[in-house]
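If you are new to this repository, start here. Below is one unmodified record pulled from the training split, so you can see the exact layout before writing a loader.
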Amino acid sequence: MRRTNKILVVALALIMVLAAITGCGKKEKTEEKKADEPKTEEKAEEKEEKAEEKEEKTSDGKKIEIGVLIKGTDSDFWQQVLVGAYNFGVDHPDVNITEYGPTSEADSAEQTEILDNLITTKPDGIAIAPTLMDNCSAGIDNAMSQGIPVAVIDNKPSTDNYVAMYATDAYAAGGLVAEKFVGELEARGIALEGFVGLVSPMAGQDTVMKREAGFIDKLKEIAPDITVGEPQYTDNDIPKSLSTAEDIYTANKDTIVGYFAANNATGSGLAGFMTELMASNPEAAKGIVAVAFDSDQAEVDAVKAGALYCIAIQNPYEMGYQACQAVYDVITGAKKVDDFEAFYDTGVSLVDKENVEDPDMQGIIDPFTLKKY
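And here is the target side for that same chain:
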């Protein structure tokens, strides 16, 4: 019996020792857990501090700097490109958009100089509409070599060293205008023969040459007896475009059946001439179908009045917005240059008297209505 009692005492003692050890272990783990809690709080505080630092950088003006270099500040079309660019800045508060450009699209040398100077300021990215194929190519290569991503708008440079290009498929658009042109000749009972005057802004613009080629090639296909004259260059000047259209008419009065104006300045000049012809010789004006590219107010008004039959409207707003988006994505690391296609077609709309007042067309006809700033 005594032996049994001794065994019980020893067993109870062992149980008490084990309980004490287990209790200490739990206490230590609890204390360790409590010790870890401040570390978790410290991590949360660190995240908050980093977020605050990021906000401070933005508030201090240390934003992503994107320079947008257009062909000419005196053009509605390029101002519409800037609406897209500035709206991108509104949609992305961490971005600062700065516009650059010569006054006139005819001054390609000044645009080259502006680009070179812009690169020296080390912007984070550049969106550019090069006036000619060659005037900005070296600058674009220079920027890309320095790690400054460049997106191209409207006119292809001779270099392929850029993130992406945002523009209308100019050749296809020219063909669409030709089809519309021929359809109107037929509707007016005008024979598919005769002469078409070609009013062009300046030589060496890739996108303009493609528009003209698309128009001419499609006419050869669907109306081979119509002859398109050589491009008559006007230095992208509206008054000169008007007088050039008049000279073409005077020289081809007996055979002329139409005009093709390749951009907004030439289109505005052609609109002015056709308005004058409608007033002075309405019968002669009825026998001429005038078509143009872009949507300066003078062109839109001429469509409404019947002086221009049709205008091919690009989407300059999307060009500006998407070019900035591409540059931004590369800067932020969201995409790599290799992730982009070389060319993105921003589309074209053919506008005539039938749809010029349509509500759905107003944002395309007048991108200024889309301003967010």
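Two things worth knowing about this chain: The domain at 64-168+315-347 is CATH 3.40.50.2300 (Rossmann fold). Residues 1-44, 46-59 have pLDDT under 50 and may be disordered.
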